Amino acid sequence: MSLTEDIRDRLLARFAPAEVEVTDDSRQHAGHAGATGGGHYTVMIVSDHFRGRSLLERHRLVYEALEPLRKGIHTLSIRALVPGDI
Known about the structure:
alpha+beta; GMP Synthetase, Chain A, domain 3; 3-stranded mixed sheet; 2 helices; 28% helix
């Protein structure tokens, strides 16, 4: 199983999202300073679990859910939305 799939599975299990997309952006960062073998990801997740929470709280919840995978993640771009935001 790839790290992209692991990230997606953890988010599905934790937030029961209406929608979740995980993109591995590592190729776009090849050759950049600090790009040491990948680990660049973008997450877009839509879940009622984020309703009433600030953007910072939403991001913290995503980081907490992915904590066991943190060694493989160099950077993470997050869009954490509630249904109706998109």
